[in-house]
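step: validate -> pass
step: tokenize input -> pass
step: predict -> running
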Amino acid sequence: MYTLVKIIHMSCAMISVLGFIARGVLKIKESPLVEKKLVKVLPHIVDTVLLLSAITLVVMSGQYPWVAPWVGAKILGLIVYIGLGVVVMRTAQTSKSRMIAFILAIITALYIFMVAGTKTIF
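step: predict -> pass
step: emit ->
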């Protein structure tokens, strides 16, 4: 069961980040596609499954943030990633600030993937 949940989690993580990259590019190019209902709703579905699978894995493994520092690092990274995503998709006032936030969000996602793969925070 743990392996299945982990596969679901990893798959949703990849889909989520690839979807963010696609939506970010559309937003940067000011494409009207970024305003389509499916483009707005689908990420929330994927991210909900991602979050539920993460919580399930933490409970199943007992690797809580205060027990396994790498789990805490992933959570902090996720908070930064979400904040940067909000800047990219909603609050950026200029295309330059949107692009900077976009690049930083991708770097943050790569950090989260690195932490997940190595189970170390650096």
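step: describe -> The chain has a mean pLDDT of 96.
step: cleanup -> pass
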